[in-house]
Amino acid sequence: MTSSTNGAVTDGPRWWLRLEGLAALVIASLLYARGEHSWLQFALLFLAPDLSFAAYLAGTRIGALGYNLLHSYVGPLLLAAISLVTGRSPAIALVWIAHIGFDRLLGYGLKYPTAFADTHLGRIGRNAAS
User: Would 28 be classed as within a structural domain?
Assistant: First the structure.
């Protein structure tokens, strides 16, 4: 067992969170397909949450906040609930959920305000621990 002093999840829980990301990606994509939505729309919107990287131009604290706002399941789940209650398509929420799931599967977690590479799933990038 390893321990983390930087606040990152390690060992078994880290792999469970990555598996959870895979599940979110697969289920959101299956629901999207079942709704017979446009795959061109899916492709165009899939990376839209990554526009939050621009918030890092204002510094790491603002960057982490912007990134986390668009990479937390809270936003797309609220959008999905609103869509279902109002009778609108949840397509955008499903693409958003799929994006977050894909990021989690790859090990990209929510950001700490210390640096872009510091995430709740561990450090990412060149200096990441294997």
Answer: yes
